[in-house]
């Protein structure tokens, strides 16, 4: 049985009166948020582009990583779209790069943004988009999209 909001509020009020710290500990910490981002990802090899103005779409329908909080596997479909400038991504090395996430604890949002950062780092495309469609867990699925060039941050007043 779920406690009512009133009984929960009453117990918090009682704890405060007795000098107890009622601040719940965070379920997700800064360590969870940054998990996996310091991983030494392998280089994505490239080769010289021979043609101007065309789009390349690469799909990985069997992408896997691990949730850094629960340790449960995340399954998804990663799609990389880009217009090459001088370099194209070499597909076998891209496949090995994506497989490096297999046992890595990293949030889905960070997966997509890390892949985008590395695609831009190695291929230096005219523009790129990385889309991650992650399978449902607990009834909720996630779609994350990162684009390059990234929008400029608006100036804060």
Annotation keywords:
single chain; 157 residues; alpha+beta; GTP Cyclohydrolase I, domain 2; 4-stranded antiparallel β-sheet; two-stranded antiparallel sheet; 4 helices; 6 strands
Q: Calculate Rg over CA atoms.
A: 21 Å
The secondary-structure class comes to: alpha+beta
Strand runs, count: 6
* pLDDT < 50 runs, ≥5 residues: 1-17
CATH superfamily of the domain at 50-151: GTP cyclohydrolase I, C-terminal domain/NADPH-dependent 7-cyano-7-deazaguanine reductase, N-terminal domain
Share of helix among residues? 25-40%
Distance between the termini: 47 Å
Major sheet strand order: 2-3-5-6
Shape: globular
Beta strand %: 25-35%
Q: The biggest beta sheet, please?
A: 4 strands, antiparallel
What's the overall average pLDDT, rounded? 87
Give the name of the CATH architecture of the domain at 50-151: 2-Layer Sandwich
- The CATH class of the domain at 50-151 is Alpha Beta
Short description:
The chain is of the alpha+beta class.
What features would you describe in this structure?
The chain is of the alpha+beta class. The chain has a domain at 50-151: 2-Layer Sandwich (GTP Cyclohydrolase I, domain 2). It is built from four helices and six strands, in the order ααββββααββ. It has a four-stranded antiparallel β-sheet with strand order 2-3-5-6, covered by helices on one side. The protein has a two-stranded antiparallel ribbon with strand order 1-4. Strand 5 and strand 6 (140-148) form a beta hairpin. The radius of gyration is 21 Å and the shape is globular. The model is unreliable at 1-17 (pLDDT under 50).
């Amino acid at each position: 049985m779920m406690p009512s909001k009133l009984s929960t509020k009453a117990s918090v009020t009682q704890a405060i009166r007795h000098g107890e710290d009622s601040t719940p500990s965070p379920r997700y910490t800064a360590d969870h948020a940054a998990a996996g981002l310091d991983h030494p990802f392998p280089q994505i090899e490239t080769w010289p582009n021979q043609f101007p103005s065309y789009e390349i779409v690469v799909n990985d329908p069997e992408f896997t990583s691990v949730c850094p909080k629960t340790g449960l596997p995340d399954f998804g479909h990663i799609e990389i779209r880009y217009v090459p400038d001088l370099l194209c991504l070499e597909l076998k090395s891209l496949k090995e790069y994506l497989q490096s996430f297999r046992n890595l604890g990293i949030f889905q949002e960070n997966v997509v943004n890390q892949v985008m950062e590395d695609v831009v780092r190695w291929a230096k495309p005219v523009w790129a988009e990385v889309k991650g469609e992650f399978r449902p867990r607990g009834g909720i699925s996630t779609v994350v999209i990162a684009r390059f060039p990234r929008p400029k941050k608006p100036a804060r007043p």
